[in-house]
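ok new one. same drill as before - structure tokens go in, u give me an amino acid for every spot. 319 of them this time. try not to just spam alanines like last time pls lmao
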């Protein structure tokens, strides 16, 4: 079997979060054309990740990629505490990632000595009791589906971004995970929040992020499961720039304001919630020079925040 290397832009370096060393792995999408079906249907106007790698993967391709990952990260795998699996779509959709491939990846992960958590990216439609329980059984660790909520504002999420995620579907996904928890499995939900995306202004973006976090935390409380938040500053992708030509990238000053607001929310209302600022764009940011400059200014501070979960670390790291 050939080892299938991912594109350099989809290759994540290990970073730290509240659990310890965090490693994200990107598999190929196995749906038609290698496209996320929602992307193929012209959904998710802010994002190009669903475009995949330009071809549909087969089982042997992804199993070969798993072998490549094992070799590439051999030196750090014994230290990995949090493993995140992506496939440019929904890892819990059997059309996009074959169950036998997912089971192989999770079975391998089960052998990582310090692993405590596995997160699986998926749309809400594929977060079913059967899929979640099967993944829990395979990995033998705490498991979190990752839900790309982006915004609690229905107009922003469903009309502007065209996510077409109904409140009922979102609540059903949380309740599904809660039902799996009742049956004794260790589960939670990771929720993606876009900072400063289309439909928000500099002034309203903090309110939108806080409202989205509160919405996710409330759904978690209703379902009886813990929620972690992945925070993603908006950048103009190709599709996003075509759709929202007048809406610029999220400025660093806004990112800091949102981190401080969500840190206060977490400390006051949900101390068990983890916050993670994600800066990986998989090469889709249309302003790469600006992105590089921002990371040179703030990358160290963001890493400190992810590791310490404390907004004070931002100020210390920035000097």
């Amino acid at each position: 079997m050939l080892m299938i290397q991912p594109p350099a832009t989809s290759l994540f370096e290990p970073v730290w979060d509240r659990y310890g060393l965090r490693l994200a792995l990107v598999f190929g999408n196995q749906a038609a054309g290698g496209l996320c079906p929602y992307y193929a249907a012209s959904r998710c106007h802010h994002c190009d990740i669903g475009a995949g790698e330009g071809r549909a993967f087969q089982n042997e391709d992804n199993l070969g990629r798993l072998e490549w990952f094992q070799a590439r990260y051999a030196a750090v795998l014994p230290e990995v505490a949090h493993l995140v699996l992506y496939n440019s779509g929904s890892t819990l959709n059997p059309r996009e990632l074959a169950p036998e491939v997912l089971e192989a990846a999770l079975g391998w992960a089960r052998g990582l000595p310090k692993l405590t958590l596995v997160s699986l990216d998926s749309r809400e439609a594929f977060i079913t009791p059967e899929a979640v329980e099967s993944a829990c059984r395979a990995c033998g660790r705490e498991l979190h589906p990752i839900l790309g909520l982006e915004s609690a504002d229905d107009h922003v999420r469903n009309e502007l971004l065209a996510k077409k995620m109904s409140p009922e579907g979102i609540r059903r996904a949380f309740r599904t995970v809660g039902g799996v928890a009742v049956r004794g499995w260790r589960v939670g939900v990771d929720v993606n929040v876009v900072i400063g995306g289309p439909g928000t202004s500099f002034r309203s973006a903090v309110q939108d992020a806080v409202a989205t976090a509160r919405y996710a935390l409330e759904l978690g409380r209703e379902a009886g499961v813990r929620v972690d938040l992945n925070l993603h500053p908006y950048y103009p992708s190709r599709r996003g720039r075509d759709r929202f030509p007048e809406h610029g990238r999220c400025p660093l000053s806004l990112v800091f304001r949102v981190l401080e607001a969500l840190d206060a929310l977490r400390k006051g209302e949900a101390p068990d919630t983890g916050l993670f600022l994600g800066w990986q764009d998989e090469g889709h940011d249309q302003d790469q020079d600006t992105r590089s400059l921002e990371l040179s200014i703030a990358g160290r501070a963001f890493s400190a925040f992810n590791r310490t979960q404390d907004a004070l670390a931002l100020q210390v790291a920035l000097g």
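The chain has one domain: 8-318. and btw The first strand starts at residue 15 and ends at 17.
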